[in-house]
Amino acid sequence: MMKKFTKPEKGWMYYDWANSAYSIIITTAVFPIFYKSAATNAGISNADSTAYLGYTISIFTFILAMLGPILGTIADYQGYKKKFFTFFFALGISATALLAFVPSDNWLLLLVCYTFAALGSTGANVFYDAFLVDITSEKRMNRISARGYGLGYIGSTIPFLISIAIIVLAQQEILPITATIASKIAFIITALWWGIFAIPMFIHVKQMHYIEREPKIIVSSFKRLGTTFKEIKKYKALFIFLIAYFFYIDGVGTIISMSTSYGTDLGIGATDLLIVLFATQVVAAPFAMFYGRLAERFTGKIMLYVGIFIYIIVCIYAFFLDSVLDFWILAMLVATSQGGIQALSRSYFAKLVPKKNANEFFGFYNIFGKFAAIMGPLLMGVMTQVTGNSGAGVLSLVVLFVIGIVVLYFVPEPSKTTKLELDDSIDSSV
C-alpha cells in the first residue's frame, strides 16, 4: 500500500507512526493512570487530581500558544523549519525518558516533567504539520493527512501492546518487577519508539517552500507576524475556519487527554482502561483513512460536520456512564472520528495557506488550537470540582462542539482563487 507514495510522503507519514506512541502511552493511557495512582497515594482526591491534570495541560498549551506564531514566522526562512522541529523533538524525547526516573510518589514533579514532554511533542507537531505543504500536492493532502493519522493509530498499538503486556505481567507477578517499574519501562519504550521511527522524517523530508533569509531575521519576523495577523482578518475563509477550529478542536483535545483520568474516576480498573484504549487505537486506524477517502467524495467540510456531531453524542453519553460497557461504547464512538476530524482539519487549513508562509500561518493555526486547549481542560476541571462529578465536566464540552459546528457552516470551501489571492497579498507585504 505504501508503494503509491513518494519518499517525502512516506517519511512525513511515518512521523505520525513514531509520535503516536507518545500520544497513547503518555497523553492518554499509562502516564495518566501512573499519575493518578501517585496523587491518590499522596492523599489527593480523584476530583482534585483530575483538575490538576487539566490545569497542567492548560499551562503548557498556553506557553506553546504564545511561542507558536513567533517561531513559525521565523521558521518560514530557508533552513529554519527543520531546526525548530528538531529542537522540540529532542525536548519531547528527553522529557519523556526522564519520566521514568521521577520518584513514583512525587506527583508534582511528574506533572512538571509531563509539561516539558508535552511542550516537545506538541511543539514538534506544529512544524511537522506545516511540512505537509512541502511533501505533497494540494490534491493529495486529504489522503496523505488522513493516512498519516491512520498509520499513527496502527503504529501506536505495537509499543502500547508491549507496554500493556509488561504492566499486566508485573501485576500478575509473572515478571519479577513491580507495576510501578513496569510503567516506567513503558515511558522508556515510548521515547525509543518515537526516536527510531522519526529517522525517515529527518532523511527524506525537506523544506521546499520558504522565504529567502534576510538581515535581522527576528525583527523582520515580527513585522511579518503583524502583517499576517492583518491578512488573516481580511480573508474570510481562513479567519472563520480558525474560529470554528478554535471551538471544536478544544473539545476533541480535552476528551483525548482527559479520558483515562475520567475513566479512573468512574472506578474502571487500570487493566480495563488499557484494554479499551488499545481497542480504540485499532478501530481508529481504518476510520481515519476512511475519513480521508470520504472527504474526496463528499468534501472535507461535510466530513468535519460528521465528526463534530459524533463528538456531541459522545459528550452527552459520557454524562450517563456507569459501567465498563458504557465506557467501551463511548471509546468506540470516539475511535470512529478522532483521527478523521484532526486529519481533515490539518489538510483543510493547509489548502488555505500560502506555501511559502506555511509555518507562519500554521503558527496561527497552533495558537487557535492551543488557546482552545486551555479552555476545554479548564472548563472540565472547574465543572468537575464544582459538581464533584467528572461526567458533568465532560457534558460541559457540548457547548464547544455546538459553537464549532455552527461557525464551520459559514466557512466556504477552499478555492484556488482564495489561495492565489492570499499568496499574492503575502508576497507583496514582505
From TrEMBL:
UniProt xrefs under InterPro entries: Atg22-like (IPR024671), ATG22/LtaA_families (IPR050495), MFS_dom (IPR020846), MFS_trans_sf (IPR036259)
Mode of membrane association: Multi-pass membrane protein
PROSITE patterns tied to this protein: MFS
Transmembrane segments: 12-35, 55-77, 84-102, 108-128, 149-169, 181-203, 237-256, 268-290, 302-321, 327-349, 361-380, 392-411
Origin superkingdom: Bacteria
GO MF annotation, one: transmembrane transporter activity
Compartments where found: Cell membrane
One Pfam family cited in the UniProt record for this chain: ATG22
GO cellular component, one term: plasma membrane
Keywords, in A-Z order: Membrane, Transmembrane, Transmembrane helix, Transport
Residue span, Major facilitator superfamily (MFS) profile domain: 237-430
Annotated protein name in UniProt: MFS transporter
Annotated source species: Aquibacillus koreensis
